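Input record (one chain):
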Amino acid sequence: MSYRVLVTRSPQSMNSSQLRLRHSPRQTMLRPHVKITIYDFVIIFKDGVSKDEIQKFKDDVTSEGGELGDTYEGPISGFSANIQPQTLLDFLVQACEPDSVIKRIELKSVVTTQ
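The corresponding structure, as predicted from the sequence alone:
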């Protein structure tokens, strides 16, 4: 997984806590002039997934510092959220498991028709 980085400020204006991106179980040093950009994602669940199971994923997002967006019910079940990189990685790993309740994870974007 790669992260998109943006130049934000000079190295002199940053403290040591801003120079690290947490990876479990180790930490990776970033260059002092970069910042992680976090995007909104849509988590879509398979048919028949209960609201309680979906709520567990929402709780994971908020407990790790993410922000919930829209909730989707009806033809598709899921939600959008601003997800921290480690939480997103955890969800992607879970989505690859054969018994996963996650159908797909997409970058949130605008969809139009002609």
